[in-house]
Amino acid sequence: MTSAVMMHIVDNVAVIEVDNPPVNALSFAVRSGLQTTLREAEHNEAVDAIVLSCRGNTFIAGADITEFGKPMQPPALPDLLSEMDTLTKPMVAALHGTALGGGLEVALTCHYRVALESAKVGLPEVLLGILPGAGGTQRLPRIAGVELALDMITSGRKVSSKEAAKAGLIDKVVSDDLQNAAIAFAKKVVNNKAPLRRISELTATVSDPAIFDQYRAKLAKTRRGFDAPQRCVDTVQASVELDFADGMKKERELFLELMQGTQSKSQRHMFFAERMAAQVQGLSKGTPTRDINSVAIIGAGTMGSGIAINFTNKGIPVTMLELSFEALERGIKHIHRYYDGQVAKGRISEEQAASAKQLVSGTDNYADLSDVDLVIEAVFESMAVKQDVFTKLDKYCKPGAILASNTSTLNVNTIASFTSRPQDVIGLHFFSPANIMRLLEVVRADSTADDVLATAMKLAKHINKVGVVSGVCDGFIGNRMLKGYGREAGALLLEGVSPARIDKALYDFGMAMGPLTMGDLAGLDVGYRVRKERRERGEYVPETDGAIADRLVEAGRLGQKAGKGYYRYEEGSRTPIPDPEVDAIIKEAMDALGCEPREIDDEEIVKRLIYPLINEAALILDEGIAQRPSDIDVVYIYGYGFPVYRGGPMFYADTVGLPAIVADMEQFQARYGDDWQVAPLLKTLAEQGRSFADLSSK
Ligand code: T1G
To answer: PANTHER family in the record, alphabetically (predicted)?
Structure first.
């Protein structure tokens, strides 16, 4: 027995308890402890049955991901479960919290399962770019049916104990006193001389074998570019077509293939990167936080109302402030429409929608905000407007209220200077649609107090966002990096590469959508106005910068909202359709600017757009704007649709190899000039044979 696994006997039932905080992961100590205690229980004549339970917040939540990529110390989980499957005494798993991955696989190797009502089960391995590697793909179809198994294994979703019980995955659901309920269940099995129900002895059947190819076709769309979901289907199909032993061999073969692949390494990187982003350098773990029980949002536009939903979803009352009643009503209606939609989709009940709507109130009077704990300004991106808003907030809000700006690029230090309390000012940059995109850039201004920053990071997690700390600079982390990405898309157009080819190259790379389709979605007039204002301020903006976008805007092609931009759009459709008018505009611009077309392959298109992201990120790291490279990966995965199976721009750069990137950039610099100047940090790391991962610190 190890301290991670203990056993005691109650009424001839061996109660084995795993105690391996924080999630009872199946680390070596747990695997070896389970093997020892199970053997002991099997050979102890005083033991008639076994209950397997866990201390702490949850039943085993899976293999220990920190052990991946290192030599696996025996017993490996599949071997432990194979031995477990031979035991002759009834085993009952007692499930609470989230029995996930290897944890559920252990529970499926028990003969019975008793769960708390609040428990959830799942096989989320696919989210790590792998698949259940200890019999989950062979046992789940046998006990819960192929359809549910396919759904759970290819989506990685958690299933409530109620739904699992309905599918026969769980034998008894209790509201409390789980361990005693499991002991009583075990004793009943013994007294009734109930048979040992080994799932491995059941068979998996399917009414229509076409389901597997149907799943593959669906996943090719919904999980485009991912290998693991496809292999998951292969293993579930094997559970139907092969006997248990051969099915296990198939599972093992595909598990190892995925585990050694780049996609899984990328997705495992992102698992930890997301959690590491919450570690704020220079902020001690015990930093106090302020209570946020009420929120005000200035500006009820698309962003403001989207931001509001994050809080009403968590039962936090929101006061929307707008200058005009019509704008206020429009914003509140947007929120109501959202909740009506959630009801229509069966995601929430009418009552839940009604209570969420009641949390929203509106005003045009700043005096009504005198008691809110947090204000988020989401008004027009103009410093003059921000100054007006923050001056009023400073006047009316109570001491200790946090004053946040949702600005996407403006200087938060300047915004803080409009108040007498800069220590309470912070940037909270949401991404549109604000109630859906998980990224939240938390912009730490020079005077932002530690407890304000700690409160913001805690609040991010509470509203299901991934908070990433950014320093103050133009565009913070994500939008600043996007500049080079957009610049090169424009440059490629002037070299005669069509919008559709540019977009397809990046779509095939794995981006959620190509840069020009994204431009049409966001609206081309935003960039047009920025370039126009910069030129009016006398700033040097090369003629080629935005040359096509500006011509499109001047031709009334603002993007999707105008039904045309780089593409045209049929009424009510978002599908981009290439438009010869755009080709003519590009041709005219090329002639006017003396640009020569060039043959450019997809590989170069990708490098020309992705490498500027990496180069700008190196500057951002050097300036201390981002805390660590993996934070930048989190920004691009959760805010910009970078493919998670490539691990984010920094992880991808390490995969490509920094010397190769620098060599390509130097060639581009020779052809295109100093926009391609290699960032000092990138150059140094490449010369030293190091990677961005070498820079990451806890
Ligand atoms: N291994 C190692 N550490 C883990 C871990 C795991 N499986 N799960 C969580 N942690 C750490 C996490 O890094 C964090 O550490 C702390 O626990 C709290 O996590 C053979 C091969 C269980 C729902 O994929 O989904 O089994 O930051 O902040 O919000 O088929 O953690 O505090 O230092 O997320 O309460 C399959 C992954 C593995 C489950 C809890 N299992 N974990 O959420 O806390 S592969 C998973 C989660 C496998 C077998 C295969 C969540 C959670 P730190 P947290 P939470």
So the answer is: 3-HYDROXYACYL-COA DEHYROGENASE, PEROXISOMAL BIFUNCTIONAL ENZYME
Domains along the chain?
5-259 (3.90.226.10), 295-476 (3.40.50.720), 478-600 (1.10.1040.50)
Q: Which two tokens stand for residue 132?
A: 């259940």
Nearest CA to ligand 1 atom 51: 61
pLDDT tier at 534 (50, 70, 90 boundaries)? confident
Going by C-alpha positions, the residue among 404, 433, 403 that lies closest to residue 303 is 433
- For ligand 1, whether the C-beta of 559 sits within 6 Å is no
pLDDT at 540: 86
Distance CA 471, CA 469 (A): 7
97 close to ligand 1 (CB < 6 Angstrom)? no
Q: Is the CB of 309 under 6 A from ligand 1?
A: no
- Calculate how far, in angstroms, residue 23's C-alpha sits from the geometric centre of ligand 1: 6
Q: Residue 141: is the preceding peptide bond cis (ω within 30°)?
A: no
CA 459/CA 440 separation, integer angstroms: 10
Q: Is 128 in the pocket of ligand 1 (CB under 6 A)?
A: yes
Rounded CA gap, 161 and 164, in Å? 5
DSSP annotation of 559:
B
| pTM, full prediction | 0.93
Q: Which atom of ligand 1 is nearest to the CA of 271?
A: 13
Distance 173 CA to ligand 1 centre (A): 24
Instruction: Please state, as a whole number, how many other Cβ atoms lie within 10 Å of the Cβ of residue 162.
Output: 13
Q: 63: which strand partners?
A: 26
CB 408 within 8 A of CB 325: no
How remote is the CA of residue 458 from the centroid of ligand 1, in Å? 19
How far is ligand 1, taken at its centre, from the CA of residue 291, in Å?
27
Is the C-alpha dihedral spanning 409, 413, 419, 423 positive or negative? Answer: positive
List the catalytic residues: 105, 125
Compute the distance between CA of residue 698 and CA of residue 273 in angstroms, rounded to an integer: 10
Which residue blocks in 192-286 are alpha helix, DSSP H?
A: 210-222, 228-241, 244-259, 262-276
Residues 602-657 pLDDT 10s: 999 999 999 999 999 999 999 999 999 999 999 999 999 999 999 999 999 999 99
Residues 630 and 277: beta-carbon distance below 8 Å: yes
- Which residue carries 């909740």 as its tokens? 339
| Assigned token pair, 310 | 């994050």
User: 401: which residues sit within 8 A by CB, 6+ positions away?
Assistant: 372, 373, 374, 375, 393, 424
